[in-house]
Amino acid sequence: MKIRLNINGEKKAFEGPAHTTLLDLLRRTEYYSVKHGCETGDCGSCAVLVDGRAANTCVMLAAQAQGKKIVTLESLGTPDRLHPLQAAFVDRGAIQCGYCTPAMILAAKALLDRVSDPTPDMVRDALAGCLCRCTGYVKPVEAVLAAAALTRGHAAGRRPRPAGEAPGHA
Questions:
Q1: What sign does the dihedral 53-51-33-78 (CA atoms) show?
Q2: What pTM was computed for the model?
Q3: Quick one: which H or E segment has residue 12?
Q4: For the chain, which end, N or C, has fewer CB atoms within 10 Å of the first or last residue's CB respectively?
């Protein structure tokens, strides 16, 4: 079966059986940020963005992704120029073993593409599909909020004041 995909803005054609999962195809073509975790869609380590939404590639056929925009972590930044989310994860110590980190960053990107000033609960909800046994989610939530503030133009170390909060309130 001929499968045509748009991965990180590049149109690519593949040949393979109809039962090929998107995870298998991406890993086979060296998109190593897409992790192989559970094969049941439970852990979220294999998530990429499909048309702007996090999708678990282990339970999605590659053919189902035809005509959709697929984004992997490889497209976000480079080692010398990190995406604000990547930088915030590093700066806040939100990376432990790193296995779930690519999917978490992509889930956070999907959120920030829709909501520029998310609440901590919104961030937790966005990250809920990514099973993380190392971080306890505290540092990743802090990192996403810091990246959101940075992309809104707030200084990286300063927490923007919520509406109705008096100046000088911590």
A1: negative
A2: 0.88
A3: strand 10-15
A4: C
Query: What tens digit of pLDDT does each residue of 85-143 get?
Result: 999 999 999 999 999 999 999 999 999 999 999 999 999 999 999 999 998 899 999 99
Domains of the chain: 2-75 (3.10.20.30), 84-151 (1.10.150.120)
Do residues 162 and 118 touch, judged by C-beta distance below 8 A? Answer: no
Closest of 106, 128, 12, 95 to residue 57, by C-alpha: 106
Task: Give the model's confidence band at 158: pLDDT under 50 very low, under 70 low, under 90 confident, else very high.
Answer: very low
How far is the C-alpha of 120 from the C-alpha of 103, rounded, in Å?
Answer: 18
Q: Whole-angstrom Cα distance, residue 163 to residue 170?
A: 13
Distance CA 101, CA 86 (A): 9
